[in-house]
Design brief:
Helix 2 packs parallel to helix 5 (about 105-140). It is elongated and about 60 Å long. It contains 6 helices and no strands. It has helices at about 1-20, 25-60, 65-75, 80-100, 105-140, 145-170. The protein has one domain (about 25-170): Four Helix Bundle (Hemerythrin (Met), subunit A).
Length: about 180
Amino acid sequence: MFFVNLFFGVTVFALAIIPMLVSVGGLATAYVGAAIAIILAGIGSSIGVGIAGEAAAGIVAEDPDKFGRVLLLQALPGTQGVYGFIAGFLALQQIGAFGSLMTLDQGRAFLFACLPVAVTCLLSGAYQGRVSVACMQIVAKKPEESGKALIMPALVEFYAVLGLLGTILLLQGIS
């Protein structure tokens, strides 16, 4: 998992720095920011849901009656992709208001405003999947405690929400 996170960290850095090194306009730089928010959050969710799905499949194979309880734990990491999509959509709406008159500095502002949701959702989606797997073990052994098992992955979710809020606040500050 460390190498996956390192790879994505380098990818985020490269995508953020490329528009500054090459001669592209502000509009293209802003679109890169919106794309990063959507893509990296989606990757984080995909990783988390995939990890949790593997564990859920094993539990349901042993006891099909636990499907409903583990399904929610598997679905939780999917919310990060939604947050990235919301942030990207909000950025695209605001980019449209600027049109082709956007300066490079404004484009960079959009790029950096989209990074909090991109990075927090990438990492929290993957880690929430891991926490969900651990909590599925609670459900597998003590199904009556499934409510408690939902609280732990929800704590990881909190940081994805903070990333989304940070991006929204930063987007509002762009003029």
